[in-house]
């Protein structure tokens, strides 16, 4: 398994209210996507991005980062083999990603995700 991208998941109470700060002040582009509870914004110059999130739609807890991997099944198996707590099981979500949440030993929750094209 190889990590291909890490995106910060910033928690906000209102996506629309927060949007202006990240697009106008920081100069991030308009939304790459918006599911109503999570939206991603990207820098047109560097490609760096962040996600704003009110509350995860299907998981019991919210992640602090999203980690995109090239082999979600291997990532899930490795997390289980190492005895890490799986907070949200391996799931193919209706918006087209396969993901699971794992709790790091420090307590942070990571959304490990693969976009299956």
TrEMBL record:
InterPro entries: Anthracycline_SecMetBiosynth, Glyas_Bleomycin-R_OHBP_Dase, Glyas_Fos-R_dOase_dom, VOC_core. Pfam families: Glyoxalase. Residues 2-115 form the VOC domain. It comes from the Bacteria. Gene3D superfamilies: 2,3-Dihydroxybiphenyl 1,2-Dioxygenase, domain 1. Transmembrane segments: none annotated. PANTHER family: GLYOXALASE-RELATED. This is VOC domain-containing protein.
């Amino acid at each position: 398994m190889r990590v291909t991208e890490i995106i910060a998941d910033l928690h906000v109470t209102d996506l629309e209210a927060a949007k202006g700060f990240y697009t106008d002040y920081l100069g991030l582009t308009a939304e790459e996507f918006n599911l109503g509870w999570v939206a991603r914004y990207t820098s047109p110059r560097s490609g760096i991005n962040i996600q704003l999130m009110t509350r995860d739609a299907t998981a019991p807890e919210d992640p602090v980062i999203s980690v995109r991997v090239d082999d979600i099944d291997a990532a899930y198996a490795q997390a289980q083999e190492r005895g890490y707590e799986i907070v949200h099981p391996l799931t193919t979500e209706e918006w087209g990603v396969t993901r699971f949440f794992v709790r790091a030993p420090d307590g942070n929750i990571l959304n490990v995700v693969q976009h299956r094209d």
